[in-house]
Write a structure and sequence with these properties.
With 71 residues, the chain is mainly β. Helix content is 0%, strand content 28%. The protein has a three-stranded antiparallel sheet, with no helix packed on it. A hairpin with a 5-residue loop joins strand 1 and strand 2. The radius of gyration is 13 Å and the shape is elongated. The chain starts with 15 loop residues before the first strand and ends in a 14-residue tail after the last strand.
Length: 71
Amino acid sequence: IKQGFVLTEHPTRRFHKIQVALFREDCSWDVKDTWILPEPSTNVDHLALGKYVAVLPNFGDFTFAKVLLDA
């Protein structure tokens, strides 16, 4: 998960606790709590578990985050 800056005048990254929804082909899903580190990117190890076909960061909208989805 990548984290950039909101404003170039204030180049600050912060910790964020988010939920990540992981969807399977049969439309069932798992939700995992995840900490996003104040770094340019954070690897989330548990995203590789299972056979998921889609990932939705910030599921539940617990933090202010602009989510950009990659097709």
